[in-house]
Queue: 3 jobs
Job 1
Amino acid sequence: MGRPSTFTQYKTLLAKDIRQEFRTREMLTSMGIYALLVIIVYGAALALTANGIDVMKMGGGLLWVLIVFTSLLGLGRSFAHEKEQGCMEGILLVPLDRSVVFLAKATANILFMLAVEVIAVPLFYFFFMSGEPVAPTFLAIVAPLVVGTVGMAGIGTMLSTITMNTRSRDVMLAVLFIPLIYPLLYACVTATTAAIAGTEFWMDFFVMPLVLACGYDVVMLLVCWVLYDFVVGA
């Protein structure tokens, strides 16, 4: 038998991660519960000040805080099984391109993060914005959510690999993750807030930040893909 193609290796690794998650449901369950708890904390924190703030203008920032910290919890667990059960050593013994491991794991993380967002975003809207008039541009928040999720999953997968063997890997992941995604986070918060509030400066506050976020994704994902062979073999 010849060596499987790169795409076949990618599909095999991605299917492994998806089957493993649907068998244990550890990442999806923990991320979903954490997202619900953050929404409850938001409710307690904003309960006495709801009449004095404009939730529609703060909605983008609050929503992305929810997504970032929920994603951190999932990304910190993305290599848990490979580390605890020694699977990573077995994968590295297979004659395959190491960047395929990155692409498969990043794709799995994107799918899991989007699955949680499908539940968390409607809950956030129901609890905090359902009583406000909806702007006609509201559904445009899908674009920054997808772009931001792709970037965070790629960077988070790289950093999760780097911190996998450290003693305080969850703390190190957060310390490295937040500064690196700050440009992406700022652009996505701006675009999301513009979509929610329906700002008249559509080009300045939605289109341009979204273009910058897409450019950031492309550059950072290429860097992670190129450097992953070195990182995982170090």
Job 2
Amino acid sequence: MVGLAFALFASGCSSLGGGGVPPTYDLTAPSHFPGLRGARGQLLVQDASAIGVLDSDKIVVRPSAGEFAALTNAQWVERLPRLVQVRLIQTFENARRIRAVGRPGDHIAGDYQLVLDIRSFEIAASEGPSAEVIIGAKIVGDRSGRIVAGRVFTARVPTSATQGSAAVAALDEAWSRVAVDIVLWASRII
């Protein structure tokens, strides 16, 4: 397994409403990359876009085609698009293939922007079950505004569970595969 998501809060912690805070999970920023080479270019990673069901801190399960639900008693540590942006920036930093990487507003004069679209980030309960991550990525010239390259990245990881830490660990592994693929692809272009 590439990485392991972890619970940050125990379910017995108190919250503002007096009830327990559900276990909160994070994503891994992969750190092992084949064939490192010198760093080039500067990259700004935009906040990822996502449809409403994915634009939250809820961990999504798809019980059947066209039906979405959230894992009961579990959540991401941050809104998913923001979490993907932050962990992808860390993955680029871990790879050391880009001279500088950051978010818009980090006072980095980027040569390129990476625009992300989260298309799927879920446990597909009726298909195996499995964790599925699909992210569309575009590299845009910062000065020209033209799309230099675009690609859709997909990973599917079988899981033994549709709830709890086993399901989230499968999502984290699928995410890690996609994150590594995005970094390797972008570093060949930039």
Job 3
Amino acid sequence: MLIAHITDLHLRQEGELAFMEKIDTAERLARTVDFLNEFRPRPDLVLATGDLVDFGKVEEYRNLRRVLDRLAIPVYLIPGNHDHRDNLRAVYADHTYLPKSGFLHYVIEGHPVRLIGLDTLDPGKVTGLMCPERLAWLDARLGEAKDKPTLVFMHHPPYSVGIAQMDSYGCIGGEAMGSVVGKHPQVERVVCGHLHRATTRRWNGTVVSSTPATAPEILLNIHNGGIWGWGETPPFVGFYLWQDGGIVSHLTQVDPRVSPHAFPPKKA
């Protein structure tokens, strides 16, 4: 099974630029869609982990659909802190995996790996939240299939990364979530976005990692030793490959400047 992961798309209304009105995030997402459609072997599905749009407006979600509907692969959406649950639900009403009310949690069945999507949105706040109700839902879902390899996906990382500004925008309740996950050894991986950077950590008996954005990357600024800002890097896609009883992760740039060059065939 091959899972593709995109995150932090930050689309605005059609024709509008983001990131200080400098970046065409829709064009960057369109390039990513083309890349995924052409990638072989084709991924089984795509996870899009929040900050799908910039201001949560209906018009922004319509622009998101305009681009994402070109995907030839099933895509599953969860919200981030820039999103609006009801507007997302309204524009994606035909995505029947999305609950009709309440948190946008769900489970994807029917694959070698069971997938659990978490809604960490706390409306009006940049921080995420795993409250007791959400933790109980996660615990119950994990308890339903203790022998099934499982990947959990969410927007906010439930761990700190050493970038002070991003840690201040982290997930409240992340430690409590770790206690829940630690009870369920079938959790092979927890994946998230929000950071606009790649990170990996051993965490409560599993591995948790973040994928950089299709929007620009946040600069690496550990313990305030650098610039707090962003850089115009290419879009990124994460891949999670289930094989031989485990998940292997890969990360790649969507960069038209990178031309493929095949190695010459081996001599006999």
